[in-house]
Automatic annotation (TrEMBL):
InterPro entries: RsmH (IPR002903), SAM-dep_MeTrfase_MraW_recog (IPR023397), SAM-dependent_MTases_sf (IPR029063). It comes from Pustulibacterium marinum. Its main location: cytoplasm. GO terms for cellular component: cytoplasm. This is Ribosomal RNA small subunit methyltransferase H. Belongs to the methyltransferase superfamily. RsmH family. Keywords: Cytoplasm, Methyltransferase, rRNA processing, S-adenosyl-L-methionine, Transferase. It is an enzyme of class 2 (transferase). It catalyses: cytidine(1402) in 16S rRNA + S-adenosyl-L-methionine = N(4)-methylcytidine(1402) in 16S rRNA + S-adenosyl-L-homocysteine + H(+). HAMAP family: 16SrRNA_methyltr_H (MF_01007).
């Protein structure tokens, strides 16, 4: 196992949030380096079970030697289907620590990091057909604009998209450095890192369909959890956190919660505690924790 694969964020708080029962069945939908999974296994008895999901084949290197654990190398958007395939209909808790692992950021060729020059890739699942290259070279201008504006929260999404579309008529844009050169006039020195990070975030969310996947996943959780079962979910950007927050509050992503015949709110979850964020100490030791937001909910 690679020692620096990933440093788990809010480790104790997230696993505490699952209120682990020794013989329960748990799912870690973002196995990664297995930091959260190993903590769950410590708290499970010999009859407990843990199923991990990760769509990145690199995560296979981190699987613990433990009969109680199984890794499903699939996208968690298919959680119900794959749990059913393995004979599991109900579980007692689901942990999600969304986004990209440190390992994915640190391997230059994966193309996730603005620190390196690499081919435009950013696929969490190496088998996926759509990469950052496809998005930058094949998406039409309106789709690029929407992506940069919604996922990157970039003010000049319109001009950036127009510039990319004009540039790729000459030559396709193959690498991070080429993309940076194309959009250079939108990257003033004092804001270069910030804007480039927003550009990369937008592309990554699009390549991995992160918003659609999160919605599909959340919608399956009420059916999967036993009564009293827990969700413990860490988000890293506001779009993600907004979906999680609304889903826990209203059981949906838009509009108000459903009401029953008597006018009582009818939602699948009750929230457990408030928003949890990492301490200043954790952030000082692990800068990647700085944007983490943990929400916990219980199936009613
Ligand atoms: C932030 S890391 C999780 C780190 C992990 N909690 C640990 O302690 O090492 C997120 C992981 O989830 C995986 N992932 C993200 N979205 C996924 C999805 N839709 N389906 C399956 N795995 C996903 C990524 O490949 C990555 O390895």
């Amino acid at each position: 196992m690679e020692t620096n694969y990933h440093n788990p964020v809010l480790l104790k708080e997230t696993v505490d949030g699952l209120a682990i029962k020794e013989d329960g069945v748990y799912v870690d939908v973002t196995f990664g380096g297995g930091g959260h999974s190993r903590e769950i296994l410590k708290r499970l008895g010999s009859n407990g079970r843990l199923i991990g999901f990760d769509q990145d084949e690199d995560a296979l290197a981190n699987v613990p030697e433990d009969d109680r654990f199984m890794l499903v190398s699939q996208n968690f958007r298919y959680i119900k289907r794959f749990l059913k395939f393995h004979g599991i209909k109900k579980v007692d808790g689901i942990l999600g620590d969304f986004g990209v692992s440190s390992h994915q950021f640190d391997v230059a060729e994966r193309g996730f990091s603005t620190r390196f020059d690499a081919d435009l890739d950013m696929r969490m699942n190496q088998q996926s057909e759509i990469s950052a290259f496809t998005v930058i070279n094949e998406y039409d201008e309106a789709d690029l604009r929407k992506m940069f504006s919604v996922y990157g929260e970039l003010k000049n999404a319109y001009a950036i998209s127009k510039t990319i579309v004009a540039a790729r008529l000459q030559n396709s844009i193959k690498t991070g450095a080429e993309l940076k050169q194309v959009i250079a006039r939108f990257l003033p020195k004092h804001k270069e890192n910030k804007i480039l990070a927003q550009v990369y975030q937008a592309i990554r969310i699009e390549v991995n369909q992160e918003m659609e996947v999160l919605e599909e996943f959340l919608l399956q959780t009420p059916d999967l959890l036993n009564e009293g079962g827990r969700l413990s979910l860490i988000s890293y950007h506001s779009l993600e956190d907004r979906l999680v927050k609304r889903f826990i509050r209203d059981g949906k992503f838009e509009g108000h919660a459903e009401k029953d015949f008597y006018g009582n709110v009818d939602v699948p979850f009750k929230k457990v505690g408030g928003l949890i964020v990492p301490s200043a100490e954790e952030i000082s030791q692990n800068n990647r924790a700085r944007s983490a937001k943990l929400r916990i909910a219980e199936r009613v």
